[in-house]
Amino acid sequence: MPEPKFTEKDWDEVRTAFASSIMVDTQISSLAQNLDGPTWPVKMKDETPAKYIDLTYGEALELLALKGQSAEKLDLLISILKETLAFDNPFGDMVEQTEAASARDNPLLKNMARSNIPENFPIGLTALGADTMEFCKLENLKSLGEFAVFAQGMSQNVIIGGDFRKLLNALSNLDETTLAEILPFRKGTKGLHLIEALGHATKLPNPLAKAKEAAAWFADDFEHLKKEFTDGATLTRHLSKLNNEELEKKVADLVRQMIKPGSGKGEVKEAGKPGFFRRFFRK
To answer: Which domain holds residue 61?
Structure first.
């Protein structure tokens, strides 16, 4: 068996430092992927640094053994945590980076690029809770990219929670289910979408105002909807992406009010009824 690369002292140092990292609840496999190094063999969702950092060197070895992993994997874990801290801690002595290089190596921005999530997407069009929205406003965070850079540069001693941590973890893990809860993201696809943004708008106190903001951001998509409305084409294929009949009704009503202001509430028949939207969106 090869000699371990890292010692018990190395483990104690890195686990203590990582205890206050904003990445402590991120899947280790995701951290490894962001570093473009060796993969972490355990892919379970709860396989995070938090599972290990309270353990001694010997206890960590025992836990890995219970998972069928060799002692060498503790070396890999220490390496992953050390390299993550180099990004996580702007004052770390492991890597000195310029501001531009730091942004380029930001794991959140990398994941956003992988999923075609635009960095300039407005925080105001997310479904973050009121407290997190207010925090972002106070910190002058107007876009997802600014959120990612801010999160990367936060002091390790800052404890965060709520929707801020929820979005941070979703971007760190590329958790599509959670991303779809906060962003107009469609599971199984890449990018952000107008129809999902309108779906989020229906849950707000003034849905039409937020829907108009979304339409302005997704201007090309909205123009396409308006053209289909003008041509009398069915929009069922767009709304069916929501996979929720009640939500489809609410979004249909928003679309109708934006395209034909002053029209009353609409109603949506069951999916699969041809020609409905031709009647629903008639001039």
So the answer is: 8-96
Give the residue carrying structure tokens 């290089």. Answer: 101
Beta bridge partners of 192: 185
Q: Is residue 84 part of a domain?
A: yes
Q: Give the C-alpha separation, 75 to 80, whole Å.
A: 9
Q: Are residues 165 and 202 in the same domain?
A: no
Exposed/middle/buried for 259, CB within 10 Å: 0-12, 13-18, 19+?
A: middle
Sole residue written with tokens 């980076």: 97
55 secondary structure, DSSP code: S
Residue 220 DSSP code: H
The model's pLDDT over 44-83, given as tens digits with 9 standing for 90+, comes to 989 999 999 999 999 999 999 999 999 899 999 999 998 8
How far apart are the C-alpha atoms of 60 and 72, rounded to whole Å? 11
**13 and 86 together in one domain:** yes
Distance (Å, rounded) from C-alpha 140 to C-alpha 124?
Answer: 12
- CA dist., res. 251 & res. 248, Å (int): 5
